[in-house]
Structure formats: C-alpha cells, structure tokens
Amino acid sequence: METASVILALIFATLRLATPLIFATTGGLMSERSGIVNIALEGFMLFGAFAGAVVGQYFASAWMGWGAALLAGLLIGALYALFVIELKADQIVTGMAFNLLAMGVIPFLTKILYNSTGTTPALLVEDRFTFEPLLMGFLLVALVAFWLYKSRSGLWLLFAGEHPEALLASGVSVRKVRWSAVCASGVFAAWGGASLSLFLSSAYSPMMTSGRGYMALAALIFGKWRPFPALGACLLFAFADAVQIRLQGVRFGDTEIPVQFVQILPYLVTIIALAGFIGKSRAPKALGREGF
Amino acid sequence: MKRLIGFAIGLIAALLLTFFAGENPWNIFMILLRSAFGSMYDLGLTLSYTTPLIFCGLSVAICFHAGLFNIGAEGQLTMAAVTAAAVGILLPQVPFPIAPVLAFTAALLAGGLWGWVAGWLRAVRGSHEVIITIMLNFIAAGLASWFTLKVIPNPNSQSPETAMVSANYMFKDFDLIARLFPDTPANASLGFAIVFAVLMWIFLWKTTWGFDLRAVGANAEAAHRAGISEKKVRIWAMALGGGLAGCVALSEVLGSAGQYRIGFSPDYGFIGIAVALLANNNPLGIIAAAFLMGALHKGASDLDLETSTITRDFSRIIQAFIILGVAAQAYWEWLKKNRKRKS
C-alpha cells in the first residue's frame, strides 16, 4: 500500500515536472528542424514565466498569463529570428546573449513594476492552473508531430532543415519558413516558462527555470529531433527530477544523502543519457547553416 | 574596428534603454565611467574583475580555435577554486614557496579535468559540448557547495564559504600589484593573466601543437586527412580551456580572498564568452576586452547606490547588447552593399 502510493505520487510529480520541458522541447524542435540552432530556450522560458506571472497576477487569471506568455514568446522569438536570420549573427553566441538578456531585463522590469528585483506577487491558488498545461503539452506534441509529417507546410519546415536548396528551388522562401518556425519556437518555450510560474508555482522567481531550457535541448538531441522520442526524453528527465525531490532528506541507516548530491541527479542523468544512448543521433543536415 | 563599433552600438542601445526607467542615459554613462575609473580604489576593483575575465576569455578562446564552444568555464573555475581552497585548508603545514605552487597545480588539474571530461565526451561519444558543459556547470556547483558546507566550512561565519587557507598559501607580502591598490582584491595574478595571454599567443601561432589545434578548428576533415588526430586535439583543447578557467583560483583564493565563497563569481565564465567574442579570440586582444568588460561590471555595481531604478543587473543587459552588436556581422555587409548601390 505504502509503495503503491509512493509510485503514484512519483508518476504525478513526473508528469507535472515534465510539462515545462515538453513545451520547451517542442519549441526547440520547431526551430532546430528548420535549421536554426536554439540555445536561447532558457531565456525564452524566463521571459514567458515572467510575462505569464505578471499579467496572470494583474488580471487574476492564469489564462490571461498564458496569453501574455504567447505574446512575449512571439516578440522574443521574432527578435531572435531577426538576429540569426537577417543579421546572420552566430547562432550559439546570439542564443547565449539572449539568455543573458533575460537575466538582465527581467530584474530591470521588476524594479520598475514592483520596486524589487526578486519575485513577482503571487497568484491566488484558485487563479492558478490545476492540470490544463499538462494536457496542452501532450496535445501540442501530438499536433506538431501530425502537422510536421502530414502537412505541406510541415514538410517545408523539415526541408528548410535538411535541404534548404531544394526548398528554395521549389519556390518556397526558406527565410520565411525559418522566421515562422523560430517565432513558434519562442511561443512554445515561453509557454514552458509560463507553466512554471502559473502551474508548478504561483509567481516568477529569479532563475526559476534552473537550466530547463538546456535540458530541453538535451531532450531534443536524445530524442533524435523527433517529437515523440523527445517527449519520452522529457519524461525521463522529469522522472529524475521527481526522484531528486523525493530523495531530499531521505536516510539510509545513519547517513543522510547530502542534498547537493541529490540535486545534481537530473543533470547527471542528462549527461549519461547524451553520452550513452544507442545509435548516433543525427541532427538536421542544414542545422546552423546560414545564407538563405 | 568593426568590433569596437559593435561594442559602441551595444553600449549606446543599452544606455538608451534607461530612458524607460526615467533615467538620463548620459548620466548613467558618467556613473559607469566614474565608478570604474574614478579613483585608485575603483581602478583596483576594476582590475580585480579584469583578471578572472582574462582567464575565462582565454579559456573560451582556446576551445574556439579548436572549433569547440566552451560554455563550461564557470564550472571549471568553480572546481578549481574549491580545490585550491581544499588543499590550503587540509594541508596547512606546507612551507611557503611550495604551498601556493601545490595549490595552484591542484587547481589547474581540477579545472583541466572538468574540461577534459567534456572534451572526452565530445570527441569519443559525440555528445554536444555546449550541453555537456552546461550540465557540468550545474554538477560543479552542487559538488562545490557540498564540499564547502559539509567538509571544509568556515567555523567562524554563517556565510556559505570555506575556512581560510593557511597563510603560507597566500602571496600577499610579495604582491606589488596588491600594494599599489590597497584595500582592493587586485593582486599579482593580473600579471600571471597577462603572461598567460602572451604564452597562449605564442602557443597558437608559433608552435606545431598550436597549428594542429587551429587546423582542427578551421576544418576538422582536412586536418584529419593531414594526419592530425582531431579527437586528441579536441580533448586537449577542452582540458587546456578548463585549466585556463581554473586559473581563476589564483586570483580569487590564493591572491585575495584566501577562501572559496559560494557565488563569488558573477558568472565570470559566461562573461568570458563575451570577452573572447569581442577580442575575436585573439589572446592579446582578450587582455583589452577583459579590461573593458571588467570596467563595465565594476561600473554597474554602483548603479544600485546612485540611481533609484537601475540595479547592477543592468550590466547583463549591457553585456548582452554588446555581444549582439558585435555578433550581428551581416549588418556591416548590408551597410557596404547599400553604400555601393547609392554611389
């Protein structure tokens, strides 16, 4: 009985913790399958978490926060597209700059809005999401997978990442496809952030993503840039995270496992997963290639 | 030149942002200047930020020359600093000239090992070094925090820091730079940083190892056909990068603080990326770029006091804008094309 309830609690925790990762990973998938490296997911998530928390709290509605995250994601995604597609800035360097930007701009805004650089005011419990983002996350993966492989525009996206020349030759603008993909990537990743501040907790707190944007990228690589395997990788990482939270303060006989060892578990799992998976993961052929 | 203009555009754009907070950008700029260079004390602090930034800039740059992107300098310097502190606390009896050398060697090895792991995973397992190094940063932070709080904590303080290293490990009495800037953490490691930058320049452009490294970075396929083992080069480049980042232990633990403090680094590893980018990965340029970034960082630290709405986090915005200003290379081509079209 005892173990059954523990297992059930672990499964629920895994699903909840997987939600932000699923959104961010799907965002990464959009961008990377179109040929644009996206290491800025962490920053996108932070912006989404912040916009969601601020607007959600202001209107006392999680859905308004969700909408605000959409707009914030669209905006930041478009800005990223401007730099990497139009200005041909190095994609990894720009991504890091965007993450830095999130860490600088958000305290700047909280200072103006709330005269503090810490957390935003909390939402009431009844204004928070209870399960909706979880459902939407799974739905999103299914929709994206279906769209990617079954629709004409989905194929355009795949071609932009594999054979941009062929796409160009058939009269489709690679630039436009990539712009839309990166904007969508911004929205999905921002929703990942918003599911942190509106679903897993009730406010924005500094650095609340704690590396999830990077883990999403790892999940993408681990899932070989395919929607459902990437979803599986998200669940694996979320499981490691759930176990980590569960193990804090657990004793084996006389010795307590140091909390720091427990906390690094998800990151360790990520490295082992990346280093040890069977068969090589093949990136989209034109990933990181510019000039279209 | 392009990079300097990119730097200026980034800085100006960031300063204009302060309009939205109801500040006068020119005013902010003057505060930045005054607080970075206003007195010998301010300059000393600026230099104390410059030193770790040189080390981290070199760390990022050497990996970049081998075609690798090292986002792991933060974790590498954490492992090195905590190792230096551990040696200084656990082996207090070692006499002076040997002691700092011993601690420094241990720090180099710790940082190097942390880089080596990423290099090995990249070269042998094909894992992407960017994600691996970021994960290693989190793991380093966790390990260092455990070691600091549970194994060698400071018994006299509530702050999250290690005990003080034994006095034989510090080179304070022989430190000319520290004497020049009293009461600041500036110390002789600045000299070491400059020497390391020169050595790296010689290594990259005057030795065959340096040539091999650059060859792999320029075109791994061609280098492989020319008989250079790109695996070996990649592993060693990351290990060297880790060692260079590990040198931060020299300026922080052995030069000034005498202990490892959790959170002592304001993301030196990440700012190092901006430094390397600004200097186009040229080791000598990195000295100047690190000085600029160090000045920015020190300058921003006084914004908390001198304005009501801008905080020290503003330095991150400036850094991000500068990176973007420098990285947006196509802007120049576009300008050039436009000019041609007009004439």
Top keywords for this entry?
heterodimer; A: 292 residues; mainly alpha; two-stranded antiparallel sheet; 2 strands; 73% helix; B: 343 residues; ABC transporter involved in vitamin B12 uptake, BtuC
Q: Count of DSSP E strands of chain A?
A: 2
Radius of gyration of chain A: 19 Å
The average pLDDT score of chain A comes to 90
| SSE-based structural type of chain A | mainly alpha
Strand count, sense and barrel status of the largest sheet of chain B are:
none
How would you sum up the global shape of chain A? globular
Mean pLDDT of chain B: 89
Query: In what range is the share of β-strand residues of chain B?
Result: under 5%
Tally of alpha and pi helices of chain A: 12
Q: pLDDT under 50 segments of chain B (min length 5)?
A: none
Description:
The complex is a heterodimer of chains A (292) and B (343). Chain A is mainly alpha-helical. Chain A is built from twelve helices and two strands, in the order ααααααααααββαα. Chain A is globular. The model of chain A has no long low-confidence stretch (mean pLDDT 90). By secondary structure, chain B is mainly α. Chain B has a single domain, classed as ABC transporter involved in vitamin B12 uptake, BtuC (Orthogonal Bundle), CATH 1.10.3470. Helix content of chain B is 73%, strand content 0%. Chain B contains 17 helices and no strands. Chain B has helices at 2-17, 25-37, 40-65, 73-90, 98-125, 129-151, 176-180, 189-206, 208-218, 220-225, 230-246, 248-257, 268-278, 283-301, 303-306, 314-327, 330-342. Chain B is globular. Classes of the chains: A mainly alpha (292), B mainly alpha (343). Chain A binds chain B through residues 39, 83, 86-90, 92-94, 96-98, 100-101, 103-105, 107-108, 111-112, 117, 211, 214, 217-218, 221, 258, 260-261, 263-264, 267-268, 270-271, 274-276, 280, and chain B through 17, 20-21, 69, 71, 121, 125-128, 130-132, 134-136, 138-139, 142-143, 145-146, 149-150, 270, 273-274, 277, 309-311, 313-321, 323-324, 327-331.
